[in-house]
Amino acid sequence: MTTPTHMSNAAWGLLLLLGLIWGGSFFSIAIALREVGVLTSVTHRVGWAALVLWAVVAMRGHPLPRSPRVWIGFAGMGLLNNVIPFTLMAWGQTRIETGLVSILNATTAIFGVLVAAALLADERLTARRALGAALGLAGVATIMGWQALASFDPRNLAQLAVLAGTLSYAFAGVWARVMLKGLPPEMAAAGMLTASTLVMLPLGWAVEGSPFVALSGSGFAAIGYYAVVATALAYLLYYRILAMAGSGNLILVTLLIPAVAITLGALFLGESLSPRAFAGLALIALGLVTIDGRVFKAVSPR
């Protein structure tokens, strides 16, 4: 993880914008899932986003990679960063609140620390990161209910699906570092989304039928938002912030997303979350702040 750097006003503005965009994606997916199946929703998300990003690649004049290793990298990233997590989270969202999905999604950074420490020699698990991960996992247990360790609740299956999606994101981060290092961000994202589309289009068509179905205005707008804005454009924005402020600052976006998703869910979907969910969110947020570490640096004697 890159050492956090000072955040300029422009970087803060872009970070807030990304938090709003990704927070709104949970709401738009919930709207789309009223009209299309889970696999179809993911097909639209990756397919249209891939087309937008290839247009960006063409405008910037990037040559197509020729190395088989790069295309294998695209395929792996497509599975780990799109196909698996998008599908699991969309399925989970048909059974639990959008705000709760967004809270569990915030564990991505926590699992990322653990997976990187296990698989990458230069990402060792320091005491501070271990404490942050433990706090985050305690937050997950609080959300699901500690009694879930002793008894099965069908609702927890959806929560476990979302968590499996965040774990897939964590493995995707390691895969990208090993297999796609040095590629322009828009090329990496376009290749990844193309590989995802090649999986999701035939799979979704076989299971749920043609994805090209008549949609209401709200369904069309929802798919357009989460495919073009919250996927294609958000990837470009993500890498822009990464270049400006580093990964240590970028992790803060995971604290902004649930606030947006919970608010939209309450205002427009009639959702409400239990106090246990908010207590879990507080523990996850504390874990992320601990992993980030700058608070400890600010209060420690020099």
What this model shows, in words?
The chain is mostly helical and 302 residues long. The protein has one domain. The chain is built from 13 helices and no strands. The protein has helices at residues 9-32, 38-59, 68-93, 98-105, 108-119, 127-144, 154-179, 185-208, 217-245, 247-250, 253-268, 275-292, 294-299. The longest helix is centred in the C-terminal third of the chain and has 29 residues, at 217-245. It is globular and about 50 Å long. The protein starts with 8 loop residues before the first helix and ends with a helix.
Specify the number of helices.
Answer: 13
Strand content: under 5%
Structural class: mainly alpha
What percentage of residues falls in helices of 4 or more residues?
A: over 70%
Give the SSE layout.
Elements: H1 9-32, H2 38-59, H3 68-93, H4 98-105, H5 108-119, H6 127-144, H7 154-179, H8 185-208, H9 217-245, H10 247-250, H11 253-268, H12 275-292, H13 294-299
Helix pairs in contact: 1-4, 1-9, 1-11, 2-3, 2-8, 2-9, 3-7, 3-8, 4-7, 4-11, 5-6, 5-7, 6-12, 8-9
Question: Could you list some keywords that capture this structure?
Answer:
13 helices; 77% helix; 0% strand; single chain; 302 residues; mainly alpha
Quick recap:
The chain is mainly α.
